[in-house]
Write a structure and sequence with these properties.
single chain; alpha+beta; 4-stranded mixed beta sheet; 4 strands; 29% strand; globular
Length: 86
């Protein structure tokens, strides 16, 4: 059995952090209870709601909406490829 790790290139944490920057954004379903941590500037939202957050590739929150379609449309309007995160 060969050692696969010996032939695999390693990616630095810094390079990994910048992967997809300016090109990819991700859409993630969030609970309204999690909004204050993700978007501290957001107004108070009733608990129990399912919302969608659009994040830059580096994890920076971009927008919050009540529909996945709106989050994807915002990504496209900013020339970002939207991917879903579960």
């Amino acid at each position: 059995m060969s050692d696969v790790s010996a032939t695999t290139e390693r990616v630095s944490l810094e390079a990994l952090a910048h992967l997809g920057e300016g090109h990819i954004a991700y859409v993630k379903q969030v609970r309204s209870e999690d909004v204050p941590d993700l978007f501290p500037q957001a107004p108070k939202i009733a608990p129990g709601l399912k919302l969608f957050a659009l994040h830059a590739a580096d994890g920076t929150p971009i927008m919050l909406t009540d529909s996945r379609e709106a989050a994807v449309a915002n990504a496209w309007s900013n020339e970002l490829q939207a991917v879903s995160v579960h």
